[in-house]
Design brief:
Blueprint lengths: L9 H6 L11 H23 L2 H8 L3 H5 L5 H12 L12 H15 L3 H15 L1 H29 L9 H18 L5 H16 L4
Length: about 210
């Protein structure tokens, strides 16, 4: 039985969707549609082939709606990744150094299965080539989570659980760096048990208040 699709063209025929037939969106609905479109285009085409036209078509809007918001795709992608991540301030922390670190790192690890991991996989080369893009990634995507971690440690210092030196960059960055290295090498985020081991054997001993 013939499908009407020639051999070698099956994949293309299945993937092509005419998003222009959908009704135009506005407001929050449009913002969400743009974010989803950017992530979908990034995952399917990669950063190099991602275009304003492709995002606009998939989101069901015009390119002018994108150009009013962003001067280039670099900033559009950074904002889409940031918008797709949970708000760091919405994270409920138990209130103890060990427990807080575990909840924080487990949340970040789970985020690597979504937009955070997509950004790390697809955009690492772009960050190495473009200093401006690396700064956007740091400020818009990673920065709010680093600030939450510093706040978590500051609270532990105030409670007497952590030493003042625990806010040194090597202390703040060790946990997230281990998570990122593991995910980059294996494509699999650290498990709860592995995170607990990291906290107990490295982070708490490094940060804890000393007599």
């Amino acid at each position: 039985m013939s499908t009407g699709v020639r051999a070698g063209h099956v994949e293309t025929a299945l993937l092509v969707t005419d998003y222009r037939q959908r009704p135009r969106k506005r407001g929050i609905t449009l913002e969400r549609a743009i974010t989803e479109a950017v992530l979908a285009e990034l995952g399917e085409r990669g950063y190099g082939a991602l275009t304003f036209e492709g995002v606009a078509t998939r989101a069901g809007t015009g390119k002018s709606a994108l150009y009013r918001r962003w001067p280039d795709k670099m900033s559009m992608v950074a904002d889409a990744l940031s918008a797709a991540l949970p708000d760091p301030q919405s994270l409920t922390l138990p209130g103890g150094l060990r427990a807080d670190l575990i909840v924080y790192l487990e949340t970040v690890a789970q985020g690597m299965l979504g937009p955070l991991g997509l950004g790390m996989r697809v955009l690492s080369a772009e960050m190495n080539r473009h200093h401006e893009f690396a700064e956007m990634w740091e400020h818009r995507v990673i920065g709010p989570w680093q600030a939450l971690l510093a706040e978590l440690i500051t609270d532990a210092i105030a409670r007497g659980e952590a030493r003042t030196g625990a806010l040194a960059p090597e202390c703040v960055l060790t946990g997230p760096s281990v998570l990122c290295q593991r995910f980059t090498l294996t494509g699999v985020p650290m498990s709860r048990a592995e995170i607990e081991s990291l906290v107990d054997n490295a982070l708490v001993p490094m940060m804890a208040a000393r007599d």
